[in-house]
Amino acid sequence: MKIFQKAYDATLKWAGHKHAEPILCLVSFTESVFFIIPPDVMLAPMALARPQRAWYLAGITTATSVLGGIAGYMLGYWLYEPVVLPFIEAMHYQAKMEMIQNWFREYGIWIVFVAGFSPIPYKVFTVSAGVMQMAFIPFVLASAVGRGGRFFLVAALMRIGGEKYRDKLRDIVDTLGWTVVGLIVIGTLVYQLLYK
Fold first, then answer.
1. CA distance 58 to 54
2. How many domains does the chain have?
3. In whole angstroms, what is the distance from residue 143 CA to residue 154 CA?
4. Are 72 and 127 in contact (CB under 8 A)?
5. pTM, whole model, 2 decimals?
C-alpha cells in the first residue's frame, strides 16, 4: 500500500500552490504553541519544488516559529492554569511537562536550543520556559538559533539535492513512513509496559 507516496505527491503539488507560503507561516507559528504537525513537512517539499527560494522559505519558517515560541512563552507565563494546564491534561502531556521542567532546572537555556533543533515537541518547551519564567531575551535567541539551524539545514539539503532528492525520496517514502509508524507503535508498547 503506497499511501505515503500518494501523500508525498500531493504535498509536492500543494507546495506549489499560490497560498503555500502563508500556510507554511501559519503551520510554523502554531506548531510552536499547540499544533502537532512540524513545519518541516511543508518546508521540505516547498524547498524541493522551488530550490531557488529555499533560503527565503527557511527564513520565514524560522521567524514565524520563533514568534510562535514567544506566544507559547507568554501563554506559560501568564495563562498557565486557565488555558495551558487543561490542554496539557487533554493531550496527556503531564509527564512530558514534568520531565521538561526538570531539564530546564538542570540545563537552563541550553535545553531551548536543543529543543528548537530536535524533533521533540517544541511547544512543550516554549510553554515550560514561560511557566519557569526563564529570561526572555536568552529564550528568544536560543529559539532563533535552534529553529534556524534546523530549518536552514532542511532547506540546504533540499536545495543541494533538488531533483535527485525528490525522486529518491519518492522511491523510499513508503518504507520510511511505515518504519516510523512501526517505531511509534513499538515505542508506545514499550512505554506502556515500563511505565504503566
1. 6
2. 1
3. 17
4. yes
5. 0.76
CA distances from 38 to 48, 137, 191 (A): 17, 24, 23
pLDDT digit string, tens, across residues 86-133: 877 887 878 877 887 888 888 887 888 777 777 677 887 888 889 888
| Calpha distance 165→51 (Å, rounded) | 11
User: Cβ atoms within 10 A of the Cβ of 73, count?
Assistant: 27
Closest CA to 11 of 179, 178, 170, 180: 170
Dihedral angle at the C-alpha atoms of 151, 39, 13, 52, nearest 10 degrees?
-20
Q: For residue 86, what are the contacts with CB-CB under 8 A and spacing of at least 6?
A: none
Backbone dihedral angles phi then psi of residue 79, each to the nearest 5 degrees: -125, 35
Determine the pLDDT at residue 40. 83
Identity of residue 173? V
| 118 φ/ψ angles, rounded to the nearest 5 degrees | -90, 170
3-state secondary structure of 133: coil
Task: Provide the grid cell at 90.
Answer: 487533554
pLDDT score of 48: 82
